[in-house]
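The protein record quoted in full:
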Amino acid sequence: MPRRAKVATLPEKIKRCLRAKELGKKNYHRADTLLDEIALELKPGDQVELSEKRKVVLEDQFLTKSTVWKPCGVRRYELKVIES
C-alpha cells in the first residue's frame, strides 16, 4: 500500500511560507543586481544569443514613454526572451 503524504501542521506551513518569501526576496535582489550589471554591458535593443533557438533582447520600458502601467514595482530594463 502506498504511503500517505505527511500532513503539515499549521506552524510548519507558516514556516515554509515565510522561508519561500525570504528566498523570493533574496533571488529578486540577486536578479536585480545581475540585471544592473547586464545593463552596463548592453544597450537597449541589443540581442544576445543563448542557444540556437533562444535569444534575449534588453528592452528599455521607458524608451518611448514616461509612464509604464504595471501592477507594482517597475524595472526600467527587462530581458525579453525570443524563442525561434
